[in-house]
Amino acid sequence: MGTKSIGLQLATQLRDIFETAIVFLYPAKCRVCDDFLGVAFMPYICADCWQDIQFLEPPWCDICGTLGVNGLCDACATSPPRYGQLRAVALYQTTLQQAIHLFKFEKKKGFARHLIQLINAHIPADCDVATYDFILPIPIHKKRLRERGFNQATLLADGIAEAAGVRVLTDTLVRKRHTVAQSSLDREARQQNIVGAFDVVEPGIIRGKRLLVIDDVFTTGATIREAVSELWTADPAEIDVLTLARTVDP
Ligand SMILES: [Zn+2]
Ligand SMILES: [Zn+2]
Description:
This protein is an alpha/beta fold.
């Protein structure tokens, strides 16, 4: 056996050891497609599935961002929501659902980094974050904060704000009432569940200011509507919304 093949053998052995270490360090399979992760660039989700994330593009409703609409959708034309515009970065489908689940419900706080990178790279062009006076994450109740250890919207807001050089306010819009998780309810019950859940503390800070509200997922919009309606009591100049993901209406 020549030196060359011994070297090759050693390299193969080292590679095996390295791959074993990677599989040991990270869960072996992708959460989405169940393929082995191998040498992964991020834990839990493979590069192929990560590439499948569907970023949103116009045309969309000028106000609520409903896809495939030029100008205003019927709902916004007849009874416009109280925010100026709502934008989302990507569709709430397979990969992003898994990613948000990992982050939010399995409390993989470190995964926020990947989601923040994704948001900052794909914020819609008509949402110029740097022009807002303040960024406000949708708050969670302190009971839920204790359970989870962090507010997912605040982590995302911090990452977006840092890149744009805007201040985040976490003590201005607060959750005064503990509510059942919105995800466990249907559309109608969500509206009932969230009424009166928010409060604005020290309204003077946001009076006359341009606000950008941040949340992780937009589904029925009940939470966003209620938070925005409460924020208007402080008389800001403008309220827009940006979420990481949104569902599409059936
Ligand atoms: Zn995969
Ligand atoms: Zn609309």
